[in-house]
Amino acid sequence: MEQTLKCCHYGGKQRARLRPDTRSPLWLWPPFVPDCTYFTRKEILRLFYRYRDLAPQLVPLDYTNHPDVKLPYELIGSMPELKDNPFRQRIAEVFSEDGEGNMTLDNFLDMFSVLSEMAPRDLKAYYAFKIYDFNNDDFICKSDLEKTLNKLTRNELTEDEVKMVCEKVIDEVDLDNDGRLSLEDFQHMINRAPDFL
Fold first, then answer.
1. CDD domains, from UniProt (predicted)?
2. Residue 121: which of 36, 190, 185, 40 has the closest Cα?
3. DSSP per residue over 90-155, as a string?
4. What is the value of pTM for the model shown?
């Protein structure tokens, strides 16, 4: 069996991916599938079938002729891994190319790769930051914190309690005192509270 290794750099870690051959079920695998994940070839194939099972009428087995197939957020958000997560929509939005949660296979694999136990902590922190940055301005501002806290507590805190907690977080974590959290501020907070991720 002839195999080609392609190395690449993803999330600070070099990975190698075996290119599929025609004697494997992966022969149909599109050439644009992410070359770098934290999964084995077998795990990638399993995730492909998970993706396909969400909408077999949309995702053909021979994926090479349909690289632009996207599954709608409604299907992605209903997966057991996401359906009870208060951030399911934000997670899907952050990992989707269109920003609306509609996912290609690439997006789907990226999401599962980053959320896996094998992904490095700094990569997880980067994506957690993006998920909490609701207005997509590359900062976590007070309104982002309020939305995050409301989702985490399922709206069980009063408005005053939410404001108080958000002000306290900004006071303690905002290193440059600009009233919002940068990625650096967020990573510093994560390093101080390792159980956060």
1. EFh (cd00051)
2. 190
3. HHHHHHSTTSSS-B-HHHHHHHHHHHSTTS-HHHHHHHHHHHH-TT-SSSB-HHHHHHHHHHHHTT
4. 0.81
In order of their start, the domains of the chain are 39-119 (1.10.238.10), 121-196 (1.10.238.10)
Q: Which two tokens stand for residue 100?
A: 């609306």
SS3 46: helix
- Residue 109: which residues within 8 A CB-CB, separation 6 or more? 33, 34, 37, 39, 44, 47
- CB contact at 8 A, 104 and 68: yes
Give the whole-angstrom CA distance, residue 97 versus residue 85: 21
Q: Which residues fall within 8 angstroms of residue 174, CB to CB, at 6 or more apart?
A: 180, 181, 185
